[in-house]
Amino acid sequence: MFKIMILVLMVFSVSVLTTSAFAQNIPTAEIIISSETYKFGDKLEYQIAVSEVTNENAVVYITDESGVRSNLFTIPIQIENTIVTAQFPFDSIVWKEGRYILELEYSGASSTTEFYLVDDGTTNLPFWIRDITKMWVGDEATDKDYVRNVISQLIEEGIIDKYYQSELDENVILIPEWYKTVAGWWALGYMSDTELVNNLKFLLEENIIIISDIQLQEN
Q: Does the pTM exceed 0.90?
C-alpha cells in the first residue's frame, strides 16, 4: 500500500512539473491601445508587449459591432515592445461609427482590448479617392471616371446628397475646368476632406456641376 502511494505521488509530481514547464514556455502577450476613442481622420495606434521574442508573428483581429471579425494586421515580433501605427487613417467610407474589439494572438498567448470610433462631423476620405482625383487633375482620367469613382461613391455612402437633372440628356457631365484646380489643391493637402466635400455639395446644389442621373447610376 505504501509503495502504491509513493508511485501515485511520483506520477502526480511529474504531471505537475510537466504542466508547469509547459505553462512557462508560453510567453505573455498584451495589446495596449493608445486611446479608447478615435474619430475619422485619426490613425489607429497600439502597442504589442510580449515577455519573450519567439520569432513568431503576432496576429491582430478586429471585430465590429455587427460581430464581423477580420484579420487586421500580421507583424513579425522582433522586440518585446512593438508600436504599431495604421498606414491610413479612419475614413468615412470604409469605417463606421461604433465599438470595435481588437484581439491579439501571439505564440499561444492572447489579449483583447477595445476602442470606439465616433463621428464628430469631420469627413475623412479613403486614400484611393485622392489617387483617382490626382489622375483626373493630371488628365490621366476622364470626367466620367471622376464622376463614377468619386462623386457617385460619395453619394452612395451618404457623404453628399444626390443632386441630378432628370430632364437632361443621359450623357451630360458638366464640370467647370477651374474645379480641377480646387480638386488639385485638395489632392496636394491644401484643403481638408471636409472642405472638399462641402465645396462639392455647394457646386452640385447650385448646378455649377451638372451630372445627369444615368451617369451617377452606371458603374
A: no
